[in-house]
Amino acid sequence: MIRLGINVDHVATLRNARGERYPDPVRAAELALENGADGITAHLREDRRHIRDEDIRRLRALSAPLNFEMAVTDEMVTMACALKPHACCLVPERREELTTEGGLDVVGLRESLAPHVSRLLEAGIRVSLFIDPEPEAIRTAAALGAPVVELHTGAYALGKEGELERLHRAAHMTAECGIELHAGHGLTYENVSPITELPGLKELNIGHFLISEAVFVGLGASVRRMKDLLS
Ligand code: PXP
Q1: Known active-site residue 69
Q2: Euclidean distance between CA atoms 113 and 18, whole angstroms
Q3: Ligand 1 center–CA 42 separation, angstroms
Q4: 156 CB less than 6 Å from ligand 1?
Q5: How does pLDDT run across 97-106, given as a tens digit for each residue?
Q6: Residue 107 — φ and ψ, nearest 5°?
Q7: Structural domain boundaries, residue 170
Q8: 192 near 156, Cβ under 8 Å?
Q9: Which of 147, 78, 180 is nearest to 119 (CA)?
Q10: Active site residue: 116, 182, 185, 213, which one?
């Protein structure tokens, strides 16, 4: 069974749009978990545009696994080592982007990433690198000792030709390197099924679509339907 992590960032986006206390991303997390989610993902951005430090502390206090998405900075690594979430997913971050637009440049950043990855691993945190489905990125993730990679499915979700095949090749290579495979970005009810067939896939992290769908059907129903599609 593929695990489903729900990204609650956009609940915080809506809350912050009016400077209110609602909707509460932690309440959304609890509801998602009650309806079959296996874990919660949240991205604490440098500019705190959606999730805030207090949200992360409250999400950490839940009994379910927290996948803490973060940029590779001293500030975030120090915070993660103190917080000790179940997992950290290292992502690229640019202030002006609307979402995580591409995978982490693990090849170019290899030297600077290495001490951060080691520090997180030494703190007992499962490290995941969010990468594009590129052979060199997977080889570098293996060389860095990352136990998990999350493949960026954004280009596939946008319908880019050949992208599903590229994801399949990357999935095979990830398995050959002994790395656990996760995937996410831009996934919906309509496009998720081929992704569930990636060999060795263990986890999907989905946010924007399920939170959007919740406006119409409620979060419990959107999570349950996605869980059904994953089984
Ligand atoms: N995984 C990672 C690493 C991400 O950065 C995001 C987007 O925040 C997601 C998964 C979820 O993407 P989406 O919100 O498009 O479902």
Answers
A1: yes
A2: 37
A3: 9
A4: no
A5: 777 778 999 9
A6: -70, -50
A7: 3-230
A8: no
A9: 78
A10: 185
Q: Output the domain CATH number for residue 71.
A: 3.20.20.70
Strand partners, 41: 7, 67
Task: State residue 101's pLDDT score.
Answer: 76
pTM attached to this predicted model: 0.96
* 168 belongs to the catalytic site: no
User: Residues 33-65: pLDDT tens digits?
Assistant: 999 999 999 999 999 999 999 999 999 999 999
How many whole angstroms from 7 Cα to the centroid of ligand 1? 7
User: In total, how many domains does the chain have?
Assistant: 1
Q: CA–CA separation, 175 vs 138, rounded Å?
A: 10
Q: State the distance from the centre of ligand 1 to the C-alpha of 181, rounded, in angstroms.
A: 15
The per-residue pLDDT for 98 is: 74
Instruction: Identify the DSSP state of 126.
Output: E
What percent of the chain is predicted at pLDDT more than 90?
A: 96
Ligand 1 pocket residue status of 188, Cβ below 6 Å: no
Burial of 78 (0-12, 13-18, 19+ CB in 10 A): exposed
Does any ligand 1 atom lie closer than 6 A to the CB of residue 99?
Answer: yes
pLDDT digits (tens, 9 = 90+) for 66-86: 999 999 999 999 999 999 999
Question: What residues are paired with 68 via a beta bridge?
Answer: 42, 88
Question: Rounded CA gap, 86 and 2, in Å?
Answer: 17
Q: Among 17, 41, 13, which Cα is nearest to 203's? A: 41
